[in-house]
Amino acid sequence: MSKKIVVAALTLVCVIAMSVGGASAAPRAGEKRAEDNSFPITEKWSVEKLLALSKDEVVALWKTLDPPEFTELDGHYMGLVPNAGDAAAQKALGKFMYNEDSAIGYWLGKAYKPTSATKGEGYNRWRKPGGKVVRNMQFSTDIGKSLIDGKPSFMMYYGTYNPATTLTDELRKLDDYIYIGMGTTELADGKRSAPGHFILVGPTDSWVGVDENLETNK
User: Fold this and answer.
1) Do 180 and 188 meet the contact criterion of CB atoms below 8 Å apart?
2) How many domains, the chain?
3) Measured in Å, how far apart are the chain's first and last C-alpha atoms?
4) How many helices (H) and strands (E) does the chain have?
């Protein structure tokens, strides 16, 4: 897999082209919003509410948050990239990130495993045609200083396994089982790129490990 494809995939500046991605219509008097009843994750959040967020709202939330306890992340997590209100981004980027027939496949999310009290590892998961799930694009993890705002974040270093990429993801906790991430790469002038945003929900199931074919992990 080329460096260009890997960097584009891992920044996760993308959206889900779903009808629930926009804000719901206002309920009638005495009527609950459908999103308050469907797919509950916590008392405050549902899948619908997460998908109804705009990119700016996701970034603003991330800036107010703290990282999770390091060993809290363990297993597979479902990946969402809300971009409510931005039809152009949904169409263009959703075609690449949420498409089984794209070069990388349909992004399912990430996986984590602490290997000590302060260090760990992880990978991304993609669905390919025929239902095949590929586990690749590894990263190492720790709690470190954000490359975006200098505050503590749960850090994911892709360069540990793939020196061709400068991508680093940063995760902070929104609520129980819900985490917001930002991804940046290094620019030619040494600064970081504008962050790409994503949300993780879980764990959904247990750690499996990357595919044996190491070429797919780059």
Assistant:
1) no
2) 1
3) 7
4) 4, 8
